[in-house]
Amino acid sequence: MLGGMHEDVARCVRAVQSKDARFDGWFFTCVISTGIYCRPSCPVVPPKVENMRFYPSAAAAQQAGFRACKRCRPDASPGSPQWNERADLVGRAMRLIADGVVDREGVPGLAARLGYSVRQIQRQLLAELGAGPLALARAQRAQTARLLIETTSVAMSDVAFAAGFASVRTFNDTVREVFGLVPSELRARASKRQPAAAGSLALRLPFRAPLCPDNLFGHLAATAVPGVEEWRDGAYRRTLRLPHGHGVVALRPQPEYIDCRLTLTDLRDLSAAITRCRWLLDLDADPVAVDDLLRADPMLAPLVEKEPGRRVPRTVDAAEFAVRAVLGQQVSTAAARTHAARLVTAHGEAVDDPAGGLTHLFPDAAALAELDPETLAFPQARRKTITTLISALAAGGIDLSVGSDWHRTRSQLAKLPGFGPWTVETVAMRALGDPDAFVPTDLGIRYAARTLGLPSTPAALTRYAAAWRPWRAYAVQYLWATGDHAINRLPA
Known about the structure:
The protein has helices at residues 9-17, 58-63, 82-85, 89-98, 101-114, 118-129, 133-151, 156-162, 168-179, 183-189, 213-222, 270-281, 287-294, 301-306, 318-327, 333-347, 365-368, 380-394, 406-414, 421-432, 443-452, 458-464, 472-480, and strands at residues 28-31, 36-38, 52-55, 67-68, 200-205, 229-232, 235-241, 246-253, 258-264, 349-350, 360-361. By secondary structure, it is of the alpha+beta class. The strands form three sheets. The protein has a five-stranded antiparallel sheet with strand order 5-9-8-7-6. A four-stranded mixed sheet has the order 3-1-2-4. The two termini are 40 Å apart. Residues 91-189 form the HTH araC/xylS-type domain.
């Protein structure tokens, strides 16, 4: 949606007056008579139209002098689906900012990752979002601070630095400006909640309805690597490698949100951990837009009507997923899990998990660079594929980050030995997050195509699927639903 929905005033007014939660995160409503900004679905009586102003980001609203509504908490809206759908500079920049790159590396670090000048990035973000990278990162720090203030008993000085503020004074000033309350008042308002222990947090991750949890959690549970992931007590649990330490997360689907239980070794990783969990579960998607397009195909319509809101299960670590995609080439799901578990046992970093059976972080590229290819129970060609991939990842020769250029990364992967279209597109779909990635050579997709009466050869199916663009990765999820496989249902 180039140009921004916030510029379509009539459409924004209709969304606010109907309290349409689908548009939460797409734009923010500022009320000039009260000085507050809200999400479109705010439960209070809608303001007069002449008092409404619309902004494309919470940061822009804050820069314009508005403070967050205490009722609808607009800073906690689902993210705009644009930043996961778009492959341009602004989309790539927003994904990196959400992952905390500006806090860790500054705006010059963001620019270096994107291959543009600081001035170019600032100009593009200001033009589309009404705020530059520093203001966008500041809005994210404010949201992180509020979460820590309201859900933990951590000392305020520790909250300030964990949220990424350079000083307690800046932290206090920002919280007061954004929320209209000092930190102690925010905590007092939330005092009825049971605070978590230091490093442990209980959060609710919002999403746009509908959401079908079956394929999402079923896929993650069915492919879980022992020691790194598990399904326990109705929740998908896994270890997380984070910028300042590591963590363990438990994600449990609920009708209106995802219950998220995080344990972190360093609270500075809270924002990155939340962002990666949202990315993993594709929670910022716009399922109505996706399903409306796909159900226009009479072959897909019954699948969409049966279980609308399917998401693309992604990953919290793109390099990990790329390695696992190679391990899964031409073998069963069980065999791929076994191969991955061996790598984890031999090269993963041990972690403690008192609440379950998690034992390791998945080894990073530096650790895997030490492996002896002769220990891999693969044919020689597959050994070359995985060792070449690991070498490229360790040397920084392939960018799999959330800010990567999808087309360039595809080209880089395709040059590696053993990387055919299936592996490249699988990585593009689940690691890079390209919503239009497509795997017509996948056996499950070809089986589904035959079952539904669609063209079953890869070339013919690709031509037919042009009508599903730009949502072919979601069409894949619906096609997989035609098979009787554990990835299509929640574990017992």
